[in-house]
From TrEMBL:
<keyword id="KW-0460">Magnesium</keyword>
<feature type="binding site">
    <location>
        <position position="284"/>
    </location>
    <ligand>
        <name>Mg(2+)</name>
    </ligand>
</feature>
<keyword id="KW-0597">Phosphoprotein</keyword>
<feature type="binding site">
    <location>
        <position position="282"/>
    </location>
    <ligand>
        <name>Mg(2+)</name>
    </ligand>
</feature>
<dbReference type="Pfam" id="PF21404">
    <property type="entry name" value="AMG1_III"/>
</dbReference>
<feature type="binding site" description="via phosphate group">
    <location>
        <position position="67"/>
    </location>
    <ligand>
        <name>Mg(2+)</name>
    </ligand>
</feature>
<dbReference type="InterPro" id="IPR036900">
    <property type="entry name" value="A-D-PHexomutase_C_sf"/>
</dbReference>
<dbReference type="InterPro" id="IPR016657">
    <property type="entry name" value="PAGM"/>
</dbReference>
<dbReference type="InterPro" id="IPR016055">
    <property type="entry name" value="A-D-PHexomutase_a/b/a-I/II/III"/>
</dbReference>
<feature type="binding site">
    <location>
        <position position="286"/>
    </location>
    <ligand>
        <name>Mg(2+)</name>
    </ligand>
</feature>
<dbReference type="InterPro" id="IPR049023">
    <property type="entry name" value="AMG1_II"/>
</dbReference>
<comment type="similarity">
    <text>Belongs to the phosphohexose mutase family.</text>
</comment>
<dbReference type="Pfam" id="PF21405">
    <property type="entry name" value="AMG1_II"/>
</dbReference>
<keyword id="KW-0479">Metal-binding</keyword>
<dbReference type="GO" id="GO:0006048">
    <property type="term" value="P:UDP-N-acetylglucosamine biosynthetic process"/>
</dbReference>
<dbReference type="InterPro" id="IPR005844">
    <property type="entry name" value="A-D-PHexomutase_a/b/a-I"/>
</dbReference>
<dbReference type="GO" id="GO:0004610">
    <property type="term" value="F:phosphoacetylglucosamine mutase activity"/>
</dbReference>
């Protein structure tokens, strides 16, 4: 590091001292805490983003958001060149940088890191970082701190993309690094055009007139605001937006997280909305769940969560692949041995896993966390992943897309306007509609709507794909959650010895019983999850598992 760079870093970092007694850790959500203590952290993540851009020679993203957290919280996270999350290899540096006590130690830390990573700090080549923020009142000042951090690295350029959903920023980073247009207008155009294409491909005999409107809960966040813009360019969907952010508090008894956990209608809905098809976004529009209010039920809902969204997508894609690979009457065998995989975590309801396996699909499990799901899904030609909370997406390989492109323009198919050509065009449209960088509630919502029209299904018919097994989650207060070590995608306890055998013995007592315990990645607790054929059995099994953790580790459960 030359003297000019050292001087700039010392001067700028001295203006952003870390709050005393605060230690932050970079996780799936980046850094997240009360907005009032994040100025220093966001400044330092600006430095990290600039270094990451220099290292990768690519555009990097920096998003200011706290997603479904309360409005007084905020956060910051990095989008890597692929549009995905920051590589796990850099997370320890992120932690060290956020928590370093003063400017002198910060400069030394950066100097050591750039030497280890062989990053040149001479201003050539330059670094480019796209910035976005959600609608939180703290976002503007934190964005300024990020800009200061970025500009403290010589040659780094911050490009403010304005108020965005988190998936929009990830999409922009991915698009820029692929040499594609990447403005917000381009994002809306791609979604609306690919949605229109899917609707146009629906066979006349399958088409259903979905005149009933879709009511969307925008969580009083950025998603509601952006859906208002998207709505203007959609002509095949009657959308009514509630909790758009003009009134009401962000994430306060609204949003996908609230609806999925509490299983009640969000604020802003009335008895007249009963039995309607409704959807809910979370605060930064990367989670999506559907629901329908039940008549005369004290605000209870029929919940269609991420597991059922995954099942709908998997069913549709399997159908299109089957059409494409049906070679009856085809003189040339032009099929493609596409691998299709569904990726879940242990928290996926067992009924959804059974349903997917019954369809003949390959279902694999990963540890909890989007970074694990996304990485596994990328191993397939088509990888589909979702968590029950409604966060997930579909990944399609370049090899498959190249084959689909050729298949859709084969003379033998185009002359007939065949079902195979339509299937190829449909999957190509899916690849453009779905956000392959991260889970995206807006693109996911449009794909759900297109498939429901294709199937001719109501939300109630969709919900009948399978019936969820009753489940229960409990927390066990844990002063040392590292005492619990798991394997097999967190479904089996390896340590302490004997705990898994005891859980197995309890689980065997209940029809359709399934149970696991795992250390939380976010809280100082051990989580216990149980499923069984009845609510009472699931409750009892979860309580038994929590008590076993008590016995083996000596802590009290809550």
């Amino acid at each position: 590091m030359n003297e000019k760079q050292r001087s700039i870093l010392l001067d700028s970092s001295s203006r952003f001292p870390p709050p005393p007694g605060v230690k932050l850790s970079y996780g799936t959500a980046g850094f997240r805490d009360d907005a009032s203590i994040l100025q220093s952290t966001v400044f330092r993540v600006g430095i990290l983003a600039a270094l990451r851009s220099l290292k990768t020679q690519s555009v990097i993203g920096l998003m200011i958001t706290a997603s479904h957290n309360k409005v007084s919280d905020d956060g910051v996270k990095i989008a890597d060149p692929s549009g995905g999350m920051l590589t796990q290899a850099w997370e320890p540096f992120a932690d060290a940088l956020a928590n370093v006590p003063d400017s002198l130690h910060l400069v030394q830390l950066v100097d050591d890191f750039v030497m280890k990573e062989n990053i040149t700090l001479e201003g050539v080549p330059s670094a480019v970082i796209l910035l976005g923020r959600d609608t939180r009142p703290s976002g503007e000042s934190l964005l300024e701190a990020a800009k200061q951090g970025i500009s403290s690295i010589v040659g780094a350029v911050a490009v403010d993309m304005g108020v965005l959903t988190t998936p929009q920023l990830h999409w922009m980073v991915r698009s820029r690094n692929k040499g594609m247009k990447a403005t917000e207008t381009d994002y809306f155009n791609q979604l609306s055009c690919s949605f229109r294409c899917l609707i146009d491909l629906i066979p006349p005999e399958s088409a259903v007139n979905m005149m009933d409107k879709l009511i969307v809960d925008g969580a009083n966040g950025v998603g509601g605001e952006k859906l208002q813009v998207l709505k203007k360019v959609l002509h095949d969907l009657d959308i009514q937006i509630r909790n758009s952010g003009k009134e009401g508090v962000l994430n306060e008894e609204v949003g996908a997280d609230y609806v999925q956990k509490e299983k009640v209608v969000p604020r802003g809905f009335a008895p007249a909305d009963a039995d309607m098809r409704c959807a809910s976004l979370d605060g930064d529009a990367d989670w999506l769940v559907y629901f329908s209010a039940i008549q005369s039920s004290n605000n209870r809902i029929l919940l269609v969560d991420g597991d059922k969204i995954l099942s709908l997508f998997a069913l549709f894609i399997k159908e299109q692949l089957s059409i494409l690979n049906d070679n009856e009457g085809d003189r040339e065998n032009n099929s493609y041995p596409a691998t299709l995989g569904v990726v879940q975590t242990a928290y996926a309801n067992g009924a959804s896993t059974d349903y997917l396996k019954h369809l003949g699909l390959e279902v694999v499990f990963t540890p909890t966390g989007v970074k694990y799901l996304h990485e596994k899904a990328a191993e397939y030609d088509i990888g589909i992943y979702f968590e029950a909370n409604g966060h997930g997406t579909i990944l399609l390989s370049e090899g498959l897309l190249h084959w689909l492109d050729g298949r859709s323009s084969e003379p033998s198919l185009t002359s007939k306007g065949s079902v195979q050509q339509k299937a190829a065009l449909g999957l190509l449209a899916v690849s453009k509609l779905i956000n392959q960088a991260v889970g995206d509630a807006l693109s996911g919502l449009l794909l759900v709507e297109a498939i429901l029209q294709h199937m001719g299904w109501s939300i109630h018919r969709w919900n009948e794909l399978y019936h969820d097994l009753p489940s229960r989650q409990l927390k066990v207060k844990d002063v040392d959650r590292s005492a619990v070590v798991t394997a097999n995608a967190e479904t089996v306890v390896v340590r302490p010895l004997g705990l898994q055998e005891a859980i197995n013995a309890e689980t065997a007592k209940y029809p359709r019983g399934r149970c696991f315990v795992r250390p939380s990645g976010k809280e100082d607790v051990v989580r216990a999850y149980a499923e069984a054929s009845t609510e009472e059995a699931a409750d009892n099994l979860a309580n038994s598992a929590a008590q076993l953790v008590d016995q083996f580790l000596g802590f009290r459960s809550s």
